[in-house]
Design brief:
Helix content is 29%, strand content 28%. It is α+β, with helices and mostly antiparallel strands. The strands form 2 sheets. It has a 9-stranded mixed beta sheet, covered by helices on one side. Strands 11-2-3-12-13-14 form a 6-stranded antiparallel beta sheet, with helices on one face. The relative contact order is 0.17. The chain has 2 domains: 73 residues, no CATH class; 226 residues, 4-Layer Sandwich (Penicillin V Acylase, Chain A). Helix 2 runs parallel beside helix 4 and helix 3 runs antiparallel to helix 4. It contains 9 helices and 15 strands.
Length: 320
């Protein structure tokens, strides 16, 4: 199994984004319409949700809709308001002023693009859902990462990649993010870990059916304090991964770089590709330096706001 990662530098949405949309839209269209077009909110409902909850991003959304051809289905999908459900795994932790994460997912469903943009402010982020972010950092040194929260409930709210994008575009510190997360609805349960340039961090347990829980806890896997979806927890090893991280973080002999390197090892690095998903990449964010790294077993990209080089890297994931 192969996946080609790309790095793109495009300040405002233009031809690079249009080409990316053209490449991945058929899959997103099938996903968005899998329950029928009437199962998804209308264009007006999507527009009103953006204007109400994420107004700063509404002009960007309109520009993307234009680049996507102005169609009704594409515009509704791009809003990420009440999208179809999606699940994953992932591990993330804060250690010594660094945010590190493993992205665990199905390779065919990963966009595999690192974007350097300046829509509202400079942001470097791994893209998802066409304009959302799986993880990223902005020029103020705010870094964010998401992991699935381990609950199947679906409600009225935004897909989490757009919430991560909004935080990176509109916030500079963890306290600012806390305020946003108290008011923006999400459509499924997800965990966000955030770290800013001052060293402040938080893990947020978000859900569509209960108030956010914001913890000064330096790691997250795929449950929210306790297991609420036993089958998912067993398959993903979420309890074991969080316990491993908590033990390493509590060990005074464990230095930052050693813990970062452990994300390339079991139990954090998952090689379940033959069963449909596994660790696709590791990202390492260094807010004080305004820098990040994208890591695979055979390659590392070191990226900053003045030095992102457009490139590609093809990763081969073993199926045995």
């Amino acid at each position: 199994m192969e996946l080609t990662f790309r790095a793109h530098d495009e300040d405002s949405p233009a031809e690079r984004w249009r080409a990316h949309f053209t490449r991945v839209w058929p899959g997103y269209q099938e996903w968005f319409l899998k329950d029928g077009t009437r199962a998804r909110p209308t264009f007006l409902a999507c527009e009103q949700a953006l204007e109400r909850h994420l107004p700063e991003l509404a002009p960007v959304w309109r520009r993307l809709c234009e680049l996507a051809g102005g169609g009704d289905v594409a515009s509704r999908c791009l809003s990420l308001w009440c999208p179809p459900p999606f699940f994953g795994a992932c591990s993330q932790a804060v250690t010594g002023g660094v945010l590190v994460r493993n992205y665990d997912y199905a390779a065919p469903l990963c966009e595999a693009v690192l974007w350097k943009t300046c829509w509202l402010r400079p942001v470097i982020a791994m893209g998802d859902c066409l304009w959302g972010a799986l993880d990223g950092i902005n020029d103020a040194g705010l870094a964010a990462s998401l992991s699935f929260g381990g609950r199947p409930e679906v409600g009225e709210g935004f897909g989490i990649p757009l919430v991560v994008r909004y935080l990176l575009e509109c916030c500079t510190t963890v306290p600012e993010c806390r305020a946003v997360l108290q008011r923006v609805p999400v459509h499924m349960s997800y965990n966000l870990t955030l770290l800013d340039a001052h060293g402040d961090f938080v893990t947020a347990y978000l859900a569509p059916d209960r108030a956010p829980v914001l913890r000064a806890w330096p790691c997250a896997t795929n449950h929210q304090g306790k297991v609420e979806w036993a089958a998912h927890a067993e398959v993903t090893g979420t309890v074991e991964r969080e316990a491993f991280l908590a033990d390493r973080l509590a060990d005074p002999t464990e230095d930052t770089e050693r813990l970062v390197d452990r994300f390339a090892e079991a139990p954090l690095f998952w090689r379940g590709y033959a069963r449909g998903w596994g660790t696709l990449y590791t990202s390492v964010y260094r807010p004080a330096e305004r820098r990040m790294e994208l890591r695979w077993p055979d390659e590392r990209w070191r990226v900053g706001f003045t030095e992102l080089v457009e490139r590609t890297h093809t990763v081969r994931y073993p199926l045995d």
